[in-house]
Write a structure and sequence with these properties.
Length: about 425
């Protein structure tokens, strides 16, 4: 992955970050050393989506990928890999022995534990390593959900996040989701019921599934499914793309699918997927309700101190944030997005509803820069301009540097033509 980054003008460094419950997370740091300044390059944390990895933010060309765009602007880019994906499928014991996760470990893999344990550990590492006092954060899909969950209950970081951007966060799934999404979410309880025996349940839920590993310079191993049935992982990628609603899929550059198929899927657990289905049935964002899966051996009363799983008060987030939704999202439809915007009382300047984009287009679209990423960079730059004269001057140097690269940018014409 370091070679891939270098071909796009960036330097990539890997870190291992230990969580409070012993997961060893692989974190990737991307910098453009021609413009990077250890004092003035503000860190940005990028959080990936479901079944994905840090590579989501680098999968397009240099002038189209958010990770590279931010690095070229002089930001210090840190990309988390959540527990149980291909880069973070290890644990460390108290005597610092590295071991594979146990089935019991995998039962605590969902956005709940990513919010409680993964994100705080990585934010602490960034602040320690960079000696900065604050960072920016971006979360796509599950990454946005996890950030909202973390910020709603862990106010230790309120003054450490300058601004948080949520890209197509899964905060609520309503009746305007796609038929396939509603069907999958509706039958999930029946699937867990059929796995009432703990041994059967653990076989499927107590493990990582669908993790590819085809590039030799990635330090990871394939899941059993991808080793035995490599076409299965390819089929997963094809299914995810093909089942996006809408016609033409003009926002996805098909020439990049070969690169993506080497990284997607990047491993996940059925517990993570099941947690999202609970949100569909409950109509709110809450912690895992273990009452519906007693075969897990985990009880709400032991986990939370109550029989009811706590509901996340996402309206209580104190950090400044903005949200991007799309009109063609198979998980959260337009009406659901508008309900979330109203519930959170988000001001018009802090949300955007991107026309015609699907859920995947947000992060993979070849023209996402024009409709989404450039706005993120501009927002961060504007905040930086309020943080003192040194940063104002540095922003000027960064903008001049980007202009000197002469990278292709047709966004003015694309936006003017309204082809989103």
């Amino acid at each position: 992955m370091g070679t891939y980054a270098a071909l796009h003008g960036a330097n990539l460094t890997s870190y291992d970050v230990l969580t409070s419950d012993g997961w060893l997370l692989g974190v990737h740091r991307v910098q453009n050393m021609e413009i990077f300044d250890p004092k003035l390059s503000t860190p940005v944390l990028l959080c990936h989506g479901f079944a994905a990895a840090s590579f989501d933010y680098l999968s397009n060309r240099r002038n189209e990928s958010l990770g590279f765009l931010l690095a070229d602007q002089g930001y210090d880019v840190w990309m988390i890999n959540f527990r149980a994906n291909r880069f973070s499928n290890r644990k460390m014991t108290s005597d610092r022995t590295i071991t594979p996760p146990t089935p019991e470990d995998y039962l605590r893999v969902s956005f709940q534990y990513m919010a409680e344990r993964d994100i705080p550990a990585v934010v602490d590492k960034i602040l320690e390593e960079t000696e900065q006092d604050a960072i920016y954060a971006v979360g796509y899909s599950m990454g946005g959900t996890s950030m909202f969950a973390m910020l709603s209950e862990n106010h230790k970081y309120d003054d450490k996040i300058l601004h948080f951007v949520a890209l197509a966060p899964v905060l609520r799934t309503g009746p305007d989701a796609s038929f396939k999404t509603r069907t999958l979410f509706s039958i999930a309880p029946a699937i867990t019921f059929l796995m009432s025996a703990k041994s059967v349940f653990t076989t499927f839920f107590g493990r990582q599934i669908l993790s590819t590993a085809s590039l030799s310079d990635f330090d990871s191993t394939s899941s059993t499914e991808c080793q035995m049935f490599p076409l299965l992982c390819q089929a997963f990628l094809n299914m995810v793309i093909i089942t996006q609603p809408g016609l033409g899929y003009s926002h996805l550059a098909s020439l990049r699918n070969g690169i993506r198929s080497s990284m997607i899927p990047s491993g996940f657990t059925l517990m993570t997927a099941y947690h999202f289905t609970q949100g569909y049935s409950r109509g709110n964002l809450a912690k895992l309700d273990f009452r519906s899966i007693p075969q897990s051996g985990i009880r709400n009363i032991d986990e939370y101190g109550s029989d009811e799983p706590p509901v996340y008060d996402i309206g209580g987030v104190r950090v400044n944030y903005s949200v991007i939704f799309t009109t063609n999202d198979m998980i959260s439809g337009v009406q659901t997005a508008k309900k979330v915007i109203d519930y959170l009382n988000i001001e018009p300047e802090n949300y955007k509803l991107v026309n015609d984009f699907t859920h995947l287009d947000v992060i993979w679209g070849w023209d996402s820069r024009c409709w989404i990423f450039d706005d993120i960079v501009e927002r961060f730059n504007n905040i930086e301009m309020t943080r003192g004269q040194e940063r104002i001057e540095y922003r000027g140097r960064a903008v001049a540097y980007v202009e000197s690269l002469n990278l292709e940018n047709n966004c003015d014409q694309i936006v003017a033509s309204g082809e989103s």
